[in-house]
Specification:
The complex is a heterodimer of chains A (81) and B (375). Chain A is 9% helix and 35% strand. Chain A has a 5-stranded mixed sheet, covered by helices on one side. Chain A contains 1 helix and 7 strands. With 81 residues, chain A is mainly beta. Chain A has one domain: Roll (Ubiquitin-like (UB roll)). Chain B is α/β, with parallel strands linked by helices and 375 residues long. Chain B has 2 domains: 161 residues, 3-Layer(bba) Sandwich (FAD/NAD(P)-binding domain), CATH 3.50.50; 156 residues, D-Amino Acid Oxidase, Chain A, domain 2 (2-Layer Sandwich), CATH 3.30.9. Chain B is built from 9 helices and 18 strands. In chain B, the strands form 3 sheets. In chain B, strands 1, 2, 8, 9, 10, 11, 17 and 18 form an 8-stranded mixed sheet that branches. In chain B, strands 5-6-4-13-14-15-12-16 form an 8-stranded mixed sheet. Chain B has a two-stranded antiparallel sheet with strand order 3-7. In chain B, helix 1 packs parallel to helix 9. The longest helix of chain B has 17 residues. Chain B starts with a strand and ends in a 23-residue tail after the last helix. The relative contact order of chain B is 0.20. The chains are: A mainly beta (81), B alpha/beta (375). At the A-B interface, strand 6 of A face loops of B.
């Protein structure tokens, strides 16, 4: 049975089922993952760890691939805003 | 067929060549510039773009300081993508012995009107919190950084706006006696030929003592604010000066994007362009000794290039004694981005008979010429 996990995205709590990726949490929060050099929003493109467009900071560590990381209880996720 | 005729033909469209073309064109001369590749494709694209005043020798100081003031004067004209930032250099002293060098360097710069600030261990730690605790450092606030390929493109566009003709994609087979022969048969006639071919200058001017000195660079992903100044170890001079062995030194630069550009390495006699993992690892380990968290960062790209090194570490600027039509603007080693502007002014002043702002004598090729005389 799926249990629920609560993470924060830019400080706002988001509830996801266990086994969800950080990408899911970011999308549920309605955020883009990062901002390009020219200022455009970027989000998950390939969903399989190749394109690096879905990077976010996780627990203070920048440039983590959100599509390759599973949510854990209390995880702090930050997107470029 | 009559060859197309110019006052000046510059061979090599690196930053030194385009700076020369720009100077000549702005002085009303008919200029052509030839390169087998695109603008800024050689050492220009493999330089950090550190606009730095150096004190290895009096002539090196004069040319770097003169050139730096020229960059400062150009600052407002530079397009945004040149990313000119006056972030300053901090020369890092790892121990008390190097701290003594900080004071010597400060004395040297202060005597010559270059502002500096001695940083104690605490101040350095406050300015650069990601640096391992060090003895101190010397901040040179007027040093700057820029993005060399775009700076070269800017100078080339300015030269073109003043009428300079760019012939790109054609390699040069031979130069001399007022003629530039391109590989596919075209000839250009020129009163003045400038060999600005960098590490490849000796291919066109035999007898020229320029050797390739290979370097590696690594650029990271964006980590805004990770470092704030160009950081260079004071031991840099010791390692950069070794002309016989391969060396690495801690030399990192903050880019406007938040990326960190990591150098540096020097290899003698390496001819291949591929990344050498052994020296790359040495270079990164050296950097990690200064900034432990560097190894947590992700690198986007690693690449190499060839500095054009002369035996006495000064560039060759001026007439080549063996050929009245031939002039050199080559051999800038690791300082070509900085000294491109000074080189162009000095050479153009020399050729047009204008009074130079600093003496050209220390850079004249005649100091190093080993011209073979044939009976």
């Amino acid at each position: 049975m799926l249990s629920e996990i609560i993470v924060t995205v830019n400080g706002v709590p988001v509830t996801v089922p266990s086994g969800a990726t950080v990408t899911t949490a970011v999308l549920l929060a309605g955020k883009a993952c990062r901002t390009s050099v020219s200022g455009e929003p970027r989000g998950p493109l390939c969903g399989m760890g190749i394109c690096f467009e879905c990077r976010v900071a996780i627990n203070g560590k920048p440039h983590c691939q959100s599509c390759q990381t599973l949510c854990e209880q209390g995880m702090e996720v930050r997107t470029d805003e | 067929m009559t060859a197309a005729s110019y006052d000046v033909v510059v061979v090599g469209a690196g930053i030194v060549g385009v700076a020369c073309a720009d100077q000549f064109a702005r002085r009303g001369m008919r200029v052509a510039i030839v390169d087998r590749d695109m603008v800024g494709a050689g050492a220009t694209a493999a330089g950090m773009g550190h606009i730095v005043v150096m004190d290895d020798s009096e002539p090196q100081f004069s040319l770097t300081r003169y050139s730096q003031t020229l960059w400062q004067g150009l600052r407002l004209e530079l397009p945004d993508d040149v990313e000119y930032e006056q972030c300053g250099t901090i020369w890092i002293a790892a121990d008390d012995e190097e701290m003594a060098e900080v004071w010597r360097k400060r004395e040297y710069y202060n005597k010559r009107g270059v502002p500096t600030e001695v940083l104690d261990a605490q101040t350095l730690q406050r300015l650069e919190p990601n640096l391992r605790p060090m003895a101190g450092g010397l901040l040179v606030p007027e040093d700057a950084v820029l993005y060399p390929p775009c700076a070269a493109r800017f100078l080339s566009e300015r030269a073109q706006a003043h009428g300079a003709k760019f012939l790109l994609g054609d390699s040069v087979a031979q130069i001399g006696q007022g003629r530039v022969h391109l590989s596919h048969g075209l000839q250009l006639a020129a009163e003045v030929i400038v060999n600005a071919a960098g590490a490849y200058a000796p291919d066109l001017t035999p007898g020229l003592e320029i050797r390739k000195r290979k370097g590696h660079l690594v650029i990271t992903d964006r980590y805004p604010g990770f470092i704030r100044h160009q950081l260079v170890e004071l031991g840099y001079l010791k390692s950069a000066h070794s002309v016989t062995s391969d060396s690495v030194a801690f030399n990192v630069q903050p880019r406007r994007t938040g990326q960190v550009l990591i150098g540096s390495s020097r290899q003698q006699g390496a001819e291949h362009r591929e990344v050498d993992n052994e020296i790359l690892v040495r270079m990164l380990k050296r950097a990690q000794e200064y900034i432990p968290d560097l190894m947590q960062m992700s690198a986007l790209r690693t690449w190499t290039g060839f500095r054009a090194a002369t035996p006495d570490k000064l560039p060759l600027i001026g007439p080549w004694p063996a050929d009245k039509s031939l002039f050199l603007a080559a051999g800038h080693e690791g300082l070509g981005i900085t000294t491109s502007l000074g080189t162009a002014r000095l050479l153009a002043d020399h050729i047009t008979g204008a009074k130079p702002e600093i003496p050209i004598e220390p850079y004249l090729p005649s100091r190093a010429a080993k011209v073979e005389v044939h009976a």
